[in-house]
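pls design
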């Protein structure tokens, strides 16, 4: 693995805990290296860095990671797992995990549904009314 560009997530002393949590959530994940300041891990071949940078900065919704899901079962799994232990649901497939980091849990079919000119408005209205996205309801919109 040689990712030239990868995200750095800023934590206040709990970078290792976060990296361990993310590796437990996503299959094909592992810790690559760690020291008291930085933990590198990999999710499905993508490198991520967790930095113990202190209390100066907090996560906000301006940055999120998107998880494309093939099935409703995948959506349910990621939604439940990432909101557990203090995570928070938001709207339109967005959530914050217990560390305050934002995720978008979306069905992979969403692009196809949104590209249909006859359905795109109804699909968008359906999305706006949901927290966790429901594939069957989006297909019916």
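designed seq:
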């Amino acid at each position: 693995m040689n990712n030239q560009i990868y995200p750095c997530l800023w934590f206040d002393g709990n970078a290792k805990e976060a990296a361990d949590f993310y590796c437990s959530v996503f299959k094909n994940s592992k810790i690559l290296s760690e020291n008291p300041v930085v933990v590198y891990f990999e999710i499905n071949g993508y490198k991520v860095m967790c930095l113990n940078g202190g209390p100066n900065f907090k996560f906000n919704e301006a940055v999120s990671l998107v998880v494309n899901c093939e099935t409703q079962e995948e959506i349910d799994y990621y939604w439940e797992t990432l909101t557990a232990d203090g995570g928070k649901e938001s709207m339109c497939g967005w959530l914050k995990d217990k560390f305050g980091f934002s995720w978008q849990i979306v069905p992979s079919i969403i692009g196809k549904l949104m590209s249909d000119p006859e359905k795109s408005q109804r699909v968008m209205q359906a999305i706006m009314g949901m927290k966790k996205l429901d594939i069957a309801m989006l297909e019916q919109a």
